[in-house]
Amino acid sequence: MSVDDALVHSPTIEIPKRVPTPAPEPASPFLELFQQAIAKGMDGVAAMETLHKLHTQERDRSARLAFHRALSAFQAACPPIERKSEAEIKTASGTSFKYRYAEFDEIARVVGPPLRDNGFSYSFDTEMDADKMEVTFVLRHVDGHEERSRFKLPTATKSAMSIQQAAGAALSFGKRNAMIAGLGIAVSDPDPDGAGDPSTISEEQAANLRAMIDEAPEAKREVVLRRFLSYMATASIAEIRAADFKKAVGALETWKRGAK
Asked: Which residue of 13, 166, 168, 197 lies most exposed, with the fewest beta carbons within 10 A?
């Protein structure tokens, strides 16, 4: 066999690829501190407990920082949430008014994608105590930190709803408000064009607001009115801007629920 034939028919020898050696992991600063503590004569168990405490505190601090950075990024990315639903409320005096609000499903639909993009998940806890309900919104981040927002409200109502319906309505209301507070977001009307309109509320709207205030106990009525006007930044009910009527109704509704 010629040299050429030997080269052609000889088996192919594969040279193994060189696997790069991974870089050594940096030494843990806590391990170095532990070794220094032992070298200085500190008891091993005491040193380990101290370093474990320091490690836990540093881990929790880092998780909190990551949580707040992610929450800031979520708030910057979250689209506007609009009040697309409408409800009609009848007062004890027999008058009624309507206001708009954002359904919980709509809030969850809007906030869901930016929450996931920033490493968040959430859940709700609910506790019942006699005729009151407390809804807790729990916001968790992938780095381990979590924060809670609580909203307490009564379940009793003067409407024609059954006990189960009243509890369901209270739960939905509590979830909406606890989530909005926990995420630090706000809801707005679909059409904000009237925000700069200086016109004031109508006489009928003013009468509705006065009727809601009159539902407060007589001894507290003056205080409620004073705080309400301060919140609305106006000297009288008649001077409330038409664009702020729903805000005024919402404020009095929140007070009424908290007063029960």
From this structure: 13
